[in-house]
Input
Amino acid sequence: MNPHRIDFENYHLIPLKEEMIEQYANEVMRLYGNEEIVRYSGFSIIKNTKEAKQLLSKYCTKADFYIWFLLLGEKYIGDISLTVDLYHQFASVGCFLDSKYWGRGIMTKALKELLFYAYAEEGLHRIEAQIHQNNDRSIRFFEKFGFVYEATLKENFFVNGTFYDSKLYRMLFDEYMNQYGKMDF
Output
């Protein structure tokens, strides 16, 4: 993949690069340190900037993992990641947004832009979202966005020492186009 910056309205999706870690570590720490935001992810709460830098460094070294910071102006307010399987032309998506911005449609707009990039520029055919069985907010978000429920995966999320089921949702390229019809390359 060749991730690049995506601008829309007053927002920017910026692909994470090693040189950005120092600049955004404090803001990432605040987001990933918020129990309300990471509760269903299985991530450990980030307690300090050192842990945030370690997490971001790990993200930078994963060959099949791409993360875009969601910025309002220059302020980090969340991120969207894709774990990509180019051979099979699909990716798994994950989204985190500062709770101060929930319910404003920001993540919907950001995901629409990023998925267009994934489908139109990278040639992906399928995007999946696996959502913790109790994460009702994310389930509603992906359903409203147009993702289609496919299955419940038994005990595949390990969160705080317990296995949970996840709900598997998908959006195919043609489903995206039927929903959003964006073709302005």
About this structure: Helices lie at 21-32, 35-38, 49-61, 106-121, 136-145, 173-180. Residues 11 and 73 are 6 Å apart (CA to CA). The beta strands are 6-8, 11-15, 65-72, 75-85, 90-97, 126-132, 148-159, 162-172. The mean pLDDT is 94.
